[in-house]
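User: Study the fold:
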Amino acid sequence: MARPPRRPGNLPAEATSFIGRRRELAAVRRRLAEARLVSLVGPGGVGKTRLALRAAGDLGRAFPGGVWLVELAEVRDPTLVGDAVMAALDLRAQATAEPSAVLAAYLRDKRLLLVVDNCEHLLAATARLVAEVMRAAPGVRVIATSREPLSAPGEHVVPVPPLDVPAPHGVPPPHGVPPPHGVPAPLDVPAPHARPPLARLRQNEAVMLFTERAAAASGAFELTAANQAAVAGLCRRLDGLPLAIELAAVRTRVLSAEQILDRLDDRFGLLTGGVRALPRHQTLRTTIDWSHDLLDPAEQVLLRRLCVFAGWFTLEDVEAVCAQEGLPALDPLASLVGKSLVMKEDAGGLACYRLHETMREYAALRLREAGEEEAVGRRFAGHYITRCLRAAPQARRRLAEWLDWMDLEIDNVRAVLRGCVSGADAARGMNLVYAIGYYWITRALNEGVRWTEELLACEGAGPAERARAAFTRGFLAVLQSDAASAGPALEEAVAGAGEAGLPSVLAQSLSLASMAASMSGDRAEAGRLGERARAAVEGLDDDAAVLMFLQSRALNGLFEGDLGTVAEAAAEGVRLSREIGDLYSLDMMLLNLGSARLIAGAPDEAGPLLAEALRVAYRIDDRVGQYVLLDALGCVAAGSGRARQAALLMGAAETVRAEAGASVLPFLPPLLARAGEAAGAELGAAAFEEEYAAGRRLSRDAAIGLALGGPAPPAEAQQGTPRERPDETPLGRRQAEVARLIAEGLSNRQIGERLFISEHTVDSHVRVIMNKLGFNSRAQIAAWTASPDP
């Protein structure tokens, strides 16, 4: 039997059973049928996230573009909300455009569901981004979880109450009506004659949760006639709050239900002077207090210190940041995991940990009360700065492994950077942003730009630190093809590196400045800066500086059409990159060398070079490199008579480029125009457009597999991927783009320049559009395109 295609999305598998919430699930379904933004609102620990994930999973079939979870708990900076959404959708902010613009462009024709979790500390930024996305993308719906509404346009709120609890003495209160504030709940006096039947009690949501979690924790717990009164009393005592119930259930490993209830009663009674009712937030705080007080001293110290981590952390991090003054780490950490106070997950074979957001807040209060906030914060910042600075010299030689580590730790590094900006510690922040430069280069160009600009605006750093930060800013600008921003940043880097005696930074900055001048069309300045870079590199035993110089020669040669220089510089770059194990430089140099062969009309020589580059780009997850290489291998396919593969790969490259928010490299349009002409001539214009559109619907993995020699996927496989089929229309995707540009008043030549195709190809598209629509003028095409329902 054929396996059904996997629906796109990133929802995590449920680690524990989901209990109850039938009414709330039905409410979410109803609201989402009539509204595009539904917010699940309730106090911490009430189970908003689990409810949102279950509702989203149930609704997944209604969204061809998938269901995608955006986790904001670890995001502390409002400017990074858009980046978090992009990361969840597996997009990259590699362009100068803001994340909201990239998201709007990507989502505008999608039908998908976003689950935006833990918004309460970023309400304004989240509401703004959600509103922008929904304006741009009518097919997108959002489920948000928060302790208070977003107050965004069109928001529908679904309150998330605690779980239903057993009624005292078997008398059920009106559903959903809690006791008036300040009125004590009835005492849980055992009344055997009034107990509900055991079978009915087992159907209660709160009791079901306690029973299942207790059985999982102790391995032998059962709800019986003997303990039913205590279990029911516990669930009432804990107000049906799932987090509180789960914390109590874990204690059945060493205590009976009756003992747990007695101890909680004592704790609540001390706080309230015998009055049984507490506000629900105080109920949860008291339960956590009780769990905390049952910890041994080492566990208590470790728990409060763990709150400094902004995201996931490892045992090594815990030992460096928290295990001071002889405090052990491994055994207390294992105990906290066992007591459900710390969450554990494996990432690539490495055990990682984090705190539930409510527990993090509690631990932060305890850390402040202990007077350790400043000291632990200093150790936290020092640990990550030291690790990043020590790893930097070898990062390029172990790039894949280093990037895996950075992907895990980036939220903690961001917290350190934010502390450097806000705490007037710009010098350390500049050194840190420079040390992790390859993360910005391969993962988050836009974010790297924001950090470097914020830091460069600060006072107090010396010329060496400013030179490194300015170099990083200039490097990122060159990768974004933003020559206007690159120039001033690299000028500062050159001046600062000269003053501070940083020969490698000086040489690399000059090479980058030469590339920026080439991009802006100033060939004379590019040559002058290139000669300065050559002089700076001579006699310098520094691989990074040599490779940057070779990259500048190769790229400038591509801009100028000097294929001999490209081949010479790139071949030496390939040799040196292999020798030192620099995957990023190898990726770039193979691309340069393969592109030179392709431009020279030798696709058979270019193919193996470009395929190897694509394997490297895939290994380090370099999305810009992947898009360029897919396009280049599409040109190889066209030049080798594989027209269908060429169309598929060029279509896929367009999607990968859009998902990365990348700009088109200047040497590509002529190659793509030539390849499109060749493939179109072989397939016919209509068939080429269909295959190109099919390529746009390919997943990135499928496209890379095809480029590296895999079979072309059948049509049904293409349509089961995250790329959605375009709405039903008589025009293909490229024809629709041509029609839209006609409506904007562009000529055939201007349309060709915009879409990187020849004027002759545009003319063919216009004739096909007229035939399909039965028109005989461009004005009719423009009017049809501008109509609300073409």
About this structure: Residues 297-371 form a domain with the Arc Repressor Mutant, subunit A fold (CATH 1.10.10.10). The longest strand covers residues 140-146.
